[in-house]
Amino acid sequence: MDQFTYRDGRLYCEGVPVSRIAEAVGTPVFIYSAATLRDHYAKIAEAFAELRPIICYSIKSCGNLHVIRLLAERGAGMDVVSGGELYRAVRAGFRQGGEYRPGKIVFAGVGKTDAEINEALDAGIGWFNIESEAELANLIAIAQRRGVTTRAALRVNPDVDPKTHRHTTTGKRETKFGVDLERARNVFNEFGRQPHVRLTGIHLHIGSPVNAIDAYTEAIARTLELIGDLRRDGFTIDTLDVGGGFRADYEGPGSPTARDYAARIVPLLRGQGLQVILEPGRTISANAGILLTRTVHVKQSGDKQFAIVDGSMTELIRPVLYDAYHFVWPAEPGPGFVPDTRWRGINFPGTRIVDVVGPVCETGDFLARERPLPPIRRGDLIAVFTAGAYGFVMASHYNARPNAAEVLVDGDDFRVIRRRETYADLTAEEE
Ligand code: LLP
Question: Which side of the chain, N or C, has fewer Cβ within a 10 Å radius?
Answer without folding.
Answer: C
